[in-house]
Fold each of these.
Amino acid sequence: MCGIVGYIGTKDAYPILIKGLHRLEYRGYDSAGVSLINQGGDLVVYKAKGKVSALEQSVSDKDISGTIGIAHTRWATHGEPNATNAHPHYSQSHALSLVHNGIIENYKTLRVELEKNGIQFAGETDTEVLVQLIEYMQVTHQCDTVTAVHLALKNVVGAYAIAVLDKRNPNQLICARKGSPLIIGIGKGNDKAKPGESEFFLGSDATPIIEFTDKVIYLQDEEIAVLNRNGKHAITNLDSIKQTPQMHVLQMNLDELEKGGYPHFMLKEIYEQPNAIRTCMRGRIDPTNKDIILSGIRDNKEHFMRARRIIICACGTSWHSALIGKYFIEEAAHIPVEVEYASEFRYRNPVLDTSDVVIAISQSGETADTLAAIQLAKQHGCFVYGVCNVIGSSIPRNTDSGTYIHVGPEIGVASTKAFTGQLITLILFGLALAKEKNTLDEVLFHQLVDDLMLIPEKMQQTLEKTKGIEQFAKAFTYCKNFIYLGRGYNYPVALEGALKLKEISYIHAEGYPAAEMKHGPIALIDEEMPVVVIATKRGMLYDKIVSNIQEIKSRRGKIISVVTEGDTAVKSMSDYCIEIPDTRDSYAPLLAVIPLQVLSYYIAIAKGRNVDQPRNLAKSVTVE
Ligand code: M6R
């Protein structure tokens, strides 16, 4: 959830580190810090509470020279967000500094032991224990820092991605990971065997690295890397056995990480959806033969053919897409699908067997609970399939097979294009499986494929129809509560709309299946309660939702509706109405969610919220 940046080379480290922190700020942002070995050979640490810009202001009169450094943007887990608890942390002698992502679970025991041995702590974080432990190992074993890092990490229980500076060795940057991602960028000069141009970059994801190089190594669990100024690097495991890393080429470009003229990443990402899902579908639909090509299924046919059920594990927005996926896969491929919160699944004793297929859905590919659910499924011998966005992230590397959603980097904390990308991927999955299992008749299958290909254009039209939302959203800034209702495929859309509003505007919102209103929530309705109803017009549920709206209207609730073009019944009962193009029920969520994303965005803007970095949240939840 926090972000790490590191640099060693010939350039000034500070500007590279700060730029990297800005790019990583979406991961966590309650404090930030930087550590450098400056030209005078001092190991300096500068930290500030708040955003990266606060850190920049605080160093305006400081020595920020030096060609080696580490930096961090924090999302607090242990210890309140303040400058003391911000990273980097010094060791007691101030010879070492360290940044850390993750949680050291046994930090209390370690701290007590270190304190007994005379070590004094400056703050309350689990991270400080790590740097103190490394120094303690150095002193007690009379060893170099790299050996001390090995020794210290062997005593640690928990998850970590760390980077360490040692004042006595300004020519090496040490880093390690377990359970928290860390990526090493290989500088362009390193190939040329010209030590004068060699450099390494470090990032908790690729965003701070991509500007400088596309050649990276994904550090593996329990690996420790030593990056030398001369361009050489050495990677070992905790037992000091040399590892041979695989080099990867990043598949993203800098433009994708910029706002491109939009005031916020969230709005940019909402507007990117038509193109993002075009990319998601590209190469996976054969328009001539009306076929679906998903190598993840094709190459593992035997697992899918013998599966008696599918279990989908995910969190947050990804869990909402899983619910819609369940409806579609069951309908198309006639296989039972269960949807689980990964955080619950991992701590239950689920009944699993080797014929189960488990699908893990995650935008970031780094969500700790989802990763743990995968481990559990693997222990039971299940075949595990990943649906992720971030290429090379931990989930794709820990699953047996899978499909990338390919919607490009999602920076806004509120997930938007990843949701629709996940839906498309799950629909493709359902169709591909249906084809293998022969559960759909050919005419219907072809119609489903044809209708899916029309969705990007219909999304574009939907975006056009959201233009009026900015104006009427202002009327709802006073509200303390919202209710979102939908039925069938649109019920998870109601959940997703409510989550979007909660996370970026801080207005309490709940999503319900519309028919559940009568069983309790209808008591909440009065003239102050806005009710957002997704009432797209196809199938038998439309008439039923019309009745549900009447029940709310007669209790003076305010109706904001999302309806199909040409609708009259719901429109006439609505205070505000957004029309979307007609499509089949199972594809309606792809369009219906867009007005809800836009609505939450403009309500949050009207309330003066920071939509890209809402309070208390982080883009990827890499801790439990
Ligand atoms: O990266 P993941 O998809 O695994 O993340 C899961 C949730 O943390 C995420 O969807 C979260 O709910 C979003 N902020 C919602 O907008």
Note: Residues 321 and 548 are 24 Å apart (CA to CA).
Amino acid sequence: MAETDNRRIVFTGAAGGIGTMIRPLLLARYPRLVLSDRVTPKDLQPGETFVPADLAKPDEVAALVKGADAVLHFGGHSVEGPWDTILQANIAGCYNVFEAARVAGVKRLVFASSNHAMGFYPRRRKIGTNLTTRPDSRYGVSKAFGEALGALYADKHGIGVTCLRIGNVGPMPLDVRRLSIWLHPEDLVQLLAIGLDHPDIRFEILYGASDNEASWWDNSRAQALGYRPAHRAEDHRAHAEAEQAKIGPDPVGDLFQGGGFCSAEFSNDVKRAGP
Ligand code: 15L
């Protein structure tokens, strides 16, 4: 019989969309979860405790992370927002989480990065994890910042850090762009398990994507660490195309991986931006 995993795992952003989808799957593998958010997650289960925290407040984050073995950092602002929102929730918040993890002696940290750290790469280009970031928004910049913090805390303090450049998590790809970047919740939990359990983790950047034929990403490092996504975007192509038909074209966003995050506030010439 498999041994029970007794690690205390702190999960920030647990009341958010992704948190709500994956909590039951996580709990099945990790029965000692400390959920955190500013609002209380619904239907707390045995094995889940809730500790509220505002990520912008270092004392609250330190109290949350004290005694933790690992952290899954999904908290913060999950789309583009005004600078001050991004600054507090995603820049200061992310720093507070890494710093609290260092002080608490946390061994593993998985950071929910985003495809928007790379959003200005053109769709016609397949990218890996060895390229400079090309954020498509202040939000994307905050994710690139979180990846850089991850590298610092891995190199300087020995925390095993995994950054997941997540596409779009849900039961189905929402439109044609998401056929390339979709991530089923079960596949996400497989990636989290690699970040928490794989013996070789020092610092990793992996793409958070299912088995997507139209993928723009080379996720061979995740494969090498044992990732075997069980879900295929192509199985939902008809649904994605039907949804896409309801959306008008986006002359800028449709050229780039980040889609609407690229076209929002865009004031460049498309040719200069590079696709
Ligand atoms: C993200 O990073 C966002 O958190 C999510 O809301 C989606 O917009 C997703 O990217 C996406 O690119 O579809």
Note: The CA atoms of residues 6 and 32 lie 6 Å apart.
Amino acid sequence: MRTKILMVCLGNICRSPLAEGILKSKLDKEVFDVDSAGTASYHIGKRPDNRSISTAKRYGIDISQQRCRQFTHKDFSNFDVIFAMDKSNYENIIALAKSKDEKAKVSLLLQRSNSVNIEVPDPYYGGEDGFEEIFHLLDSACNIIAQDLMYNK
Ligand code: 4NP
């Protein structure tokens, strides 16, 4: 059985597309599916923010083919694990859950990291530096998550 992982932020153009690309780069495509979505509908159909695309590219990851979509209730049945970038994303996802099992699929991406941050800061209104910073937060978190996922396989 394939394991399906969903990364969720607000707009699905900055943080979760990067998280999707980074985690995908660490996992076997034959075994794991990784996708991303946003809790908001602002950018549906758009490609990731250019700053996310260029940051990923610097590290050899191509996220330019991703297209923004909104998180829906169906994602609870389509995915095994759902990671929220910040507490507000987490609350918005939990508000759509209809059962304990659905709620149990959701956690904060940085929960298991040793990072001082528990949330991935929203880089949208900041400069390029913010994208570089979140790349490293996401990368360390995804190293731990990839290890967990492969170990539990
Ligand atoms: P993201 O960043 O949630 O990491 O994709 C944002 C993107 C767009 C907006 C907010 C955050 N926006 O307000 O349009």
Note: The first strand starts at residue 3 and ends at 9.
